[in-house]
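Please complete every field before forwarding. Incomplete forms are returned to the sender.

SECTION A: IDENTIFIERS
Entry label: holo-213
Bound molecule: magnesium ion
Molecule representation: SMILES string

SECTION B: INPUTS
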Amino acid sequence: MILTLGHTKGGVGKSTLALNIAIERLLAGVDTLLIDGDPKQSSISKAIGIRGDAGLAPPVPCIALDDAKALRHQVGLLKTRYTDIVIDVGGKDSNALRAALTVTDTLLLPIGPESVEVWAIDDILELVDEARSLHDFRVLAVLNRAKPAGRDNADTVAAIEEYAGIKLVAGSLGNRAIFSSAFGRGQSVTEYRPCNRKAVTELASLMLAIYGD
Ligand SMILES: Nc1ncnc2c1ncn2[C@@H]1O[C@H](COP(=O)(O)OP(=O)(O)O)[C@@H](O)[C@H]1O
Ligand SMILES: [Mg+2]
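SECTION C: PREDICTED COMPLEX
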């Protein structure tokens, strides 16, 4: 499956989730390629570099491609080589994001429990509608950085559910420091020690919602 973590908005959790998802697939024994389609931010490539320097297993195959044409071309070539491809791509009017949407099977949108993140849905859906006129793909949303209390989570969930073209996955990912701590070491939250069981369980249910296995 080609999965794109993409959004016109930055800071929503695309890179964090792309790294976690790719590592989880590799840990499950699935031949997976990670594509850093946002190398100017360099966060995924940096995290993978740190992972490589530490010699952590499994190694994560990762290539950086922010040129739209190269991204489309390479995904076309590599999708037969890898069972799964995870693309991390962002930017307001990024050609790489548009290119990823032309090849992806699924787009996963991390959305935080804040008005600005809800308002940003219209922007990304403009690109989604454009891309869906060329080929159909699934659009999933996950509530990321869910708050421990208050009504913001429920309000955000209700707002996302208004969009017919988006399927909100059950469960959410809490606002947990382990996500940035693990990322800084090039690890998924499953690998990071000390273990945070809540984060591990949340990631597992996201994986189930995406891959169904
Ligand atoms: N579930 C989460 N809990 C806590 N912090 C998170 C979570 N998801 C992302 N973050 C943090 O939010 C910031 C933005 O995440 P990032 O993945 O870089 O976003 P993007 O790639 O969309 O710009 C980072 O500091 C990251 O550690
Ligand atoms: Mg990013």
